[in-house]
Write the structure tokens for this entry.
Amino acid sequence: MKRKWSATLASTLLALLVALPGASLAAEPAPEAKKSTFDWLTIGGDYRFRADSLNGKMPTFFNFFDPSYQAFLGGGPAPSPTAGADVKNETLYTNRFGLNLKAKASQNVSASARLVMFKTFGSQDDSAVSGLRSASGTIQPFFADRVGVFDGTTGHIPADGKVFVDYAYVTINNIFDQPIWFSVGRRPSTGGIPSHLRQNNEKPGNAGIPALLVDYAFDGATLGYAPDIEALPGAYAKLCYGRAFENGFTLDSGNGLRDTDMIGVSLVPYDTDRLYMNLQWNRGMNIFNSPVIKSNTVFGNTQPSVDLGDIDWFGLTLLSTMKKVGPGTLNIFGSGALDKTHPNGKTVILSNGFDTGAGLMFTGRSESTTGWAAHIGGRYDITATRTKIGAEYNHGSKNWISFVPAGDDIWTSKLGARGNVYEIYLIQELNEKAVSSHIAKTFLRVGYQYYDFTHTGSNNWVGAPVKMSELVNAANAQMLVPVEKATDFYATVEVKF
């Protein structure tokens, strides 16, 4: 596939490097954390400028919305396929600013919140990342998780300049004088382990989630227990609940829809600097066909119209940090997961009455499917220069479906991809004396992603996946524009305070 280094993007990076005066790369001991005037209140946050240069390859396929295909459905002649082509956005710039607050209300009660703004340069909507824009301005989406911003992705997909609540929750600790906690609110259920490595974030605490299974801004609750077991340092378990769609008022007879909920059980037998282990089971119930989206794509505004069934997920995540490996620290991880669908046989019917035959991961005959995914990688931190070098690989099988639409990737959340995704990155922290807190830092990050999709429908649970080589069959017409290959060369300037 043609890989293009954008001259404009390169110029931007050069300008950014020049604009960082006197930035020594030599190591300096981190200072002690600065005490707040109000010890009960902790204020932090981050700013990120990101530049992306995106290229992709669209295969030849039959487009469901093409007039010739619509005529074919009405008994007309054989339709014409849409010819394959290269697609691109040579320069995409985004701004993201987040403000974090944590207030300790009493000895065992605290409240946490994060407000975030994430927008595209030169735009006040999400159309720049939604899909293929025609000369008339109509946008045909590539991937289901980027059709438009919805409740589970608000603040995680570049959109307009509005400030949203990313999370806001209350935690009560030491319930019954036992190591039990309860937390409720809009959850910090995004950016889980091990995705914090490539983001150069601190490892999430016991409120975190495994990145391969969940990256979705849930409203929900957690009940956790952390017993003191000498043989299992840092061990804890928690029961999690989240709501992904609220059906609202209905007549007693109902409206054919139900609330979409998820429950999960997380067992963490080890949580130390050297080893972290997570065993996870989740069940998503009454999975909707489409979230509530106000969009200017070919779908227009969308909302759930049918429940498609349930999905079970099982996952294992391991993370290890080994210090003094040569001149630095080595972080390695491995995650594996399975999904099992339980379709109820219902299919998506369009507003004109046309039955698409597309249900929960099937098209035509209702059947349960099983998919799997793996995610491996590592990051090496060179202590003396504050340089961090990372590499990751993930694979999703034909029937892999996850719940990760809020993933911090432009094309589509990479951990929901059906196929292979490769990523390498380099982080260079600046030797700036921290002022706001002990975790304050400024760094540059450059990286490259390569997607090699084997099947259609990444991050989409509606309809059966289709092998890329079988898209030339008119029976496999697509509502989303398929992408066979995709690359993203990106660079960021980030400040955490």
Notes: The chain has a mean pLDDT of 91.
